[in-house]
Every structure is written in C-alpha cells, then in structure tokens.
Amino acid sequence: MSLFDLTGKVAIVTGSSRGIGKAGAIELARHGAKVVISSRKQDACDAVAAEIDAQFGSGTAIAVAASISSKEALQALVDRTRAHFGRIDVLVCNAASNPYYGPMEGIADDQFRKILDNNILSNHWLIQMVVPDMRARRDGSIVIVSSIGGLRGSPMIGAYNVSKAADFQLARNYAVEYGPDNVRVNCIAPGLIKTDFARALWDTPEAETRSSRHTPLRRLGDPVDIAGTMVYLASDASCYMTGQAIVVDGGVTI
Fold first, then answer.
1. What is the pTM of this model?
2. Any catalytic annotation for residue 232?
3. Which of 16, 22, 124, 194 is most buried when burial is the number of CB atoms within 10 A of its CB?
C-alpha cells in the first residue's frame, strides 16, 4: 500500500471552506480520507462538502460550521464528527485570524487577545478534544498550519507572527507529551499563498510582482502547494516525524 494512503482515516480540517484548508481537504479526500469541512458559515461548508462528494463519492465529506473563537462550537464539531464517522484520525488546525495590521505599539488589547485566542488557544482546545481517542488507539496525526511569519519579525503583522511562533512551540510541546502514545504533532509554515486571507499582498499584478520578486521560485504559492505537505503529515509517510515545522515558501526564508 502507498505510504500516502489515507483510506479509512477521518480528518477534521478547520478553515476549509476556502484557501489552504479547502485545497488540503480535497487532497486528503483524494487519498482516501473522510473529511469534515468546517468554517464559520454553514452554507460555505455545505458547498465544499458537496463538491468533494461529487468528486470522490457520496459520504466522503460532511460540513459542520464552527467558529474557532467558541470552545462550545469546537466541541460540537468534534462531537458531530465522532457521531457521524465514529473516529478522528487527523486534525488539521488551519483556521486563523488577523484583525490588525500595523506596528505592535498601536494594537489594542482586545485585538491582540483575539489573535492569541484564535490562533493559539483554539488549537490547544481542539487538540485536547480529539487526542484522548488517538492516544487510546495509539495512532493519530495533528497538523497546525502556522506561517513563516513565526520565524521573522514584521512592522505590519507582528502580533500575528507572535501567535504563529507560539504554534511552533505548541506542536513541539504536545509532540513530547503525546509521542509515547504514537500521536504526532507537526506544523506547516507556508510563505505567501494566494488566498483571500492574504489578498492585499497579491490582488494586483504590481503587488504580485513585488511580493514574488525576492522568492527564489519567482512566484507566489497556490493553496494546492500546501496540500501535499498536509497529506504527507497526515499519512504514514511521516510516521517518524513529530514536533517539526515544514517550511513551504518557495525559498523565501533561505
């Protein structure tokens, strides 16, 4: 069997109604997984689940709207997944937010708290919710979508970068705690990807040229460029990897 075969696995992907999350969910399904599509709006989730079912067969995907800011909503997401599919093998913490652009000296406390809550605490909540069954089965993979921002400083998205750096440590620490039970926790650190989340940095030809000028591959990333790494970390292909951050940035950080 292929090391990348996910047949029989069930994956929750947050923020999967568009962008990196959607591309990742589609590729997980292509490799055999059942997938749970989740973001804030149910209709957007329904549309992606229907698209996946049409491509890979009825029953491949379900849609469960949940805001990452609500612990109760995330618990409902996990509970509905277990009720429908009976298990959770893969958790992809992809959803994040960034309500503030500018120097950190100007950020309001509530904006900073929202970034930390949505980008770190929500991941912690979800991991705590899914991991007991994984530990009992001695099998599971957790993937946190961080950012190369967690490796660098920035005059415009400093608070966001702080949260993404914390995600690296969240993965490292949980990798130590859960490694003895064969539950793996890793991060993906994308560079600039052409998503709605980063639209301001690429939505004109001039902006895209400016943003890609210093990228060795001379282009920005597409969501599918991250999806392959997501499949790798979810599958047995990465069965001896935990606590790591894989940078997928076209070479920017080199």
1. 0.95
2. no
3. 16
